[in-house]
Amino acid sequence: MSEEQNAGSAWDALEGVRIPRGYQVEITAGKIIMTPRTAEQPGVVRGAEQQVREQLAGHGTVLSGVVVDFPSPQYGYAPDLALVAPGARRNARQRFEARDLEAVLEVVPRSRQDDDFVRKQRYLAASGIPLYVVVDPAAAVCTVHSHPLQGGTYREAERVPFGNDLFLPLPGRTLVLRTDDFPAGPPTPGAGPGAGRGIVDG
């Protein structure tokens, strides 16, 4: 176990704290961030989770909004969806760790592609998360980030507009998610076509 893991989990700071319903809570660089969930978020997560469960057929575990321990006490995330590798076991805190994850899928809230969002993406890459899928209802597009590099970037980023199949290459298998029923949200206020909607990579 690393020294960072011995230092504790980022979630220790929220022990006993009651989180308001309807908010997504993240810890990025030691900062606790609460973001209201959008109306589209539950629909995307439910649709993706059902498809993932059907295709995994018990070969791996699906988490939805469940706390995961990352290798730094400065970062804590509970992804909208996380795919856990077959055979992974929970740690002493009864949580899975970042190294157990094969993929993370999240729905980005409107107006959240900011510095904290970019910092989070870099940290996921540095933590070795093989696939990071960002679903952006405002732009009606998914971005599949793959091949994480030690410097904290993903080597590849493929944009998949809603209505096209989303391919998630996992070890020994590939999941295919239909995006036809993903609910699209209103565009970000003040953004022209494509403006302010791209996912910053690295």
What does this structure look like?
- The protein is of the alpha+beta class.
- Helix content is 16%, strand content 32%.
- It is built from three helices and twelve strands; from the N terminus they run αββαβββββαβββββ.
- The protein has helices at 3-6, 41-56, 115-126, and strands at residues 23-28, 31-36, 61-63, 68-69, 76-77, 81-84, 101-107, 131-136, 141-149, 153-161, 166-170, 173-177.
- The strands form four sheets. A six-stranded mixed β-sheet has the order 3-6-7-8-9-10. Strands 1-2 form a two-stranded antiparallel sheet. A two-stranded antiparallel ribbon has the order 4-5.
- A hairpin with a 4-residue loop joins β8 and β9.
- The longest helix has 16 residues, at 41-56.
- The model is unreliable at 1-6 and 191-202 (pLDDT under 50).
Question: How are the SSEs ordered, and which strands pair?
Answer:
Elements: H1 3-6, E1 23-28, E2 31-36, H2 41-56, E3 61-63, E4 68-69, E5 76-77, E6 81-84, E7 101-107, H3 115-126, E8 131-136, E9 141-149, E10 153-161, E11 166-170, E12 173-177
Parallel strand pairs: 7-8
Antiparallel strand pairs: 1-2, 3-6, 4-5, 6-7, 8-9, 9-10, 11-12
Oligomer: single chain
User: CA-to-CA gap between the ends?
Assistant: 28 Å
User: What string gives the helices and strands in order?
Assistant: HEEHEEEEEHEEEEE
- The secondary structure category is alpha+beta
Distinct helical segment count: 3
Helix fraction, binned, reads 10-25%
- Low-confidence runs of at least 5 consecutive residues: 1-6, 191-202
